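Quick one: sequence plus zinc ion SMILES, need structure tokens.
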Amino acid sequence: MRQQKWWLVGLSALMMVSCGSTQVSSGANTAQASTDAEVAAPQDGASLTAQAVSWPVLRVGSSGQSVTSLQHLLLAHGHSVGVDGQFGSQTEAAVRSFQQSRGLSADGIVGEQTWTALVITVREGSTGEAVKAVQKELGVTADGQFGPQTKSAVVSFQQSRGLTADGIVGPNTWRELVGSGTVTTSDRATLAQQILNNGRISLYTVQVSGVNDGADARSNIVDTAAGRPAKRSSYDNAPGGSVYLDTRMLRGMLSTAGVYSYRSTAIAGGSHSSNSRHYAGLAFDVDTINGVRVSSSNPYFRNFMQACRNAGADEVLGPGSAGHSTHVHCGWPR
Ligand SMILES: [Zn+2]
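Reply:
Sure thing.
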């Protein structure tokens, strides 16, 4: 009895998170006015109305494209550092020196305040290290010259993220570029921590069935952030045991959150069809997108499914598929 009460409390807390925030309700209002499934678009220079992806937190040991961008930006500010995508002691020293020069706490850790001070607005005609960072993030030739090809890549990126598509890379576009799960890191625990930090992702704290077995979506991500495998359920079809969540799937959870706020109901836990990709840490389920429950009349589910495919999922099911009238399933290849 006590256990049941606790999960009901957890469930109502979840409902408040996903239905009560302004971000979600503004998304739902947008849906009435427009057939386009974009969330309310944060504009560069305007006050932030919707929380998109977070600035990544980088420190010694971090690696990947966001570290490469950091290094280019440090160079752009005149701090000497090699560009290798590895956050080592030389990068740390350059970060501390930059932080000191801006009156920031010189802790050598790059979070929101340091990123905000580091990024430089660039547009067509701009040149230099900051442009190289943008070009590498977008996968275009990194010659440091912001020409028409770079502008067109920026505009498509902005469109895909629900940003004002003006081709100008200001703070919000920078945050989307360096904070996007597809480009930040391949480290599993870091990805999971980014998911926990992402205000646009809600995670169920029990199974949809009501079972409370520590294999719920949130526990899966908490365990992964701590370097542990994610638990599987052991009722009905579920095989029990645990599994390391796949990094492609974790990156997919982050990149879809770049455009949609959503609630995930299950990752490795819960009972699914036998041999489901969930049990292999390759799939996540979603029952609410931009504050609207998934059904055939949800205005967002088709584009959400496409966002999963864009992030590499090849088993994408939703309303119209058997057994998926109220949730979207995104699964990555084995
Ligand atoms: Zn599923």
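The beta strands are 201-203, 230-231, 242-243, 262-266, 283-289, 292-293, 315-317, 328-331. The two ends are 40 Å apart (CA to CA).
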